[in-house]
Specification:
By secondary structure, this protein is an alpha+beta fold. The protein has 3 helices and 5 strands; from the N terminus they run βααββββα. It has helices at 13-20, 24-40, 97-116; strands spanning 9-11, 49-51, 60-66, 69-77, 83-90. A 5-stranded mixed sheet has the order 1-5-4-3-2, sandwiched between helices. β2 and β3 form a beta hairpin. The chain is globular and about 40 Å long.
């Protein structure tokens, strides 16, 4: 990898609100995974990142394990190739996690694109 080729990571208010409610341990684990995203960008692969099926755009999830709990951060790359952390949650015992989180992430994404004057096209 070339030095200095890091990916800019942007956070939304919704992500920050979730993050601030986490324990210090969860925040530390999440910071490590976000660091991998900054370092690897679009090349970050499973088990740290995976595509979300059924979304209206190219939505991905940042996969963080913290003390056995599967923390998931839904994110996407904007047209400028910045990683935008949309919203996060703890998937533990939540069979409807994606059903609940997808519409929320899509709404936050549309708002982000509108506020930054970017296209609503796929991606």
């Amino acid at each position: 990898m070339l030095m200095g080729m890091s990916t800019e990571v942007i956070v939304t208010d919704e992500f920050v609100a979730w993050y601030e409610g986490l324990t210090a341990t969860d925040q530390d684990r999440l910071a490590m995974t976000i660091g991998l995203l900054e370092a690897r960008g679009v090349t970050l692969a499973f088990p740290y990142s995976s595509a979300i099926k059924g979304a209206a755009f190219a939505l991905r999830e940042l996969r963080t394990q913290s003390e056995g709990d599967p923390l998931r951060t839904l994110y996407a790359f904007d047209p400028a190739r910045r990683a935008v952390l949309l919203i996060g949650g703890d998937k533990t015992g939540d069979a409807r996690f994606y059903e609940r989180m997808l519409p929320l992430a899509e709404s936050i994404w549309r708002t982000y694109l509108d506020e930054t004057g970017q296209s609503h096209g796929r991606g």
